[in-house]
Amino acid sequence: MEPRQKELVHRGRAARRATTAGLAVAALVLLAACAAGPNLGVDTSTISGAGPYGFWWGLWQGMILPITFIVSLFTDTVSVYEVHNTGNWYDVGYVLGISLVFGGPLGARRARH
Question: pTM score, two decimals?
């Protein structure tokens, strides 16, 4: 192989390495941007003065999620998740409520038959 060809092959490899490294860094930055941040509203009182929302409110708000989501597209006063919550217990209720609405384990079993 001629020296000129060797140089072109070397440049091509270096360009591929730089592109691969750039894509890896971009993927890491993208993944880091998706990381959840702290919820500063946990265990704080709501606007009405009541305590933070717990498991039962999470369950209810999970079940009404489809309607809440549609309404939230048209207004800024409705959100799909209450930030003034008790933390993990609210989250458990919320996910369970979503699961109940969208079929949960029973819906998955029906789909297999």
Answer: 0.57
